[in-house]
Amino acid sequence: MKMHQLGKRIIAAALCCSVMLAGTACKKTSKTDKKGRVVKESDTFFDSEVSELKLPVDETKEIEFLNIDTVDYQGDRVQVSYSVLYKAPSGSAPGGIPEGYYFAGNAVFDLKGELISYGKNAENQDVSAMTTDAEGNIVQFVRIFGADKGKECKIVFRNRAGETVKEVVPETPWNPNERIINKIRVLPDGKIILQEADSSSSPAYVFDENGKYLFVLSSMELGLMSDICMKNGKYYAMTMPSDITSGSYQCLISEIDMT
User: Fold this and answer.
1) Which phi and psi (to 5°) does residue 7 adopt?
2) Which domains does the chain have, with CATH numbers?
3) Where are the strands (E) in 75-191, listed by range?
4) What's the predicted TM-score (pTM) here?
5) What pLDDT digit, counting tens, does each position of 3-22 carry?
6) What does the pLDDT average to over 127-140?
7) CA 95, 101, 102 angle in degrees (round to 5)?
8) Cβ count near 116 (within 10 Å)
9) CA–CA distance, 259 with 8 (Å, rounded to integer)
10) CA-to-CA distance for 131 and 144, rounded, in angstroms?
């Protein structure tokens, strides 16, 4: 297995973060004002807009459990992957879910919260991670329960109309039933990255655009903490120490070797 060290080329010793606040109304304090400006609860530091997303549910049934799996922003759209379990009617067989009393699927909204489209996942399938590619396609990592060996998962590319552009079956170097992938990235050159969790200790597995396994991004010292971006043909990502038990650590911007 080819191992790529994330920390082999460090670009910055420390990451200096700045927060850009829209509509800021702060005034400069004078040199003689040693107390500075007091931040009040009523101050408006940025303009924000809240829009309610009303997920499509069967209003004729009582909801027993509703779970939001993933939320993905795609420019002027928001895609939500969710599941709903409805309360079974009295007299139902114990231990089972009656037909029509469970829904797992995706809903797409505009930025005002208006529903554009929604659909149900295929039988025995679950979308555990979503992203978009350079063409604006929605990319989903789908787990398939009860599938034949080697076909337990797939990566589905859909255009903005919801039409399937292509499907890729990744050659995973692990048993798909033993790991839950909840992070997927598609790089500008088509490479696909799958990660088990958003933590610095989780390795990131790299595949080509056809699903062929290439290598794993892993390090004993540093781990990925952000999406990977491309600049002048080179890849960069925010990294941090895998072991943060010391209580203090630095975030770094590292160049990632993707060869």
Assistant:
1) -95, 15
2) 3-14+53-90+98-256 (2.120.10)
3) 77-86, 102-110, 115-120, 125-132, 138-144, 153-158, 164-168, 183-186
4) 0.65
5) 444 443 333 323 333 333 33
6) 85
7) 90
8) 13
9) 13
10) 19
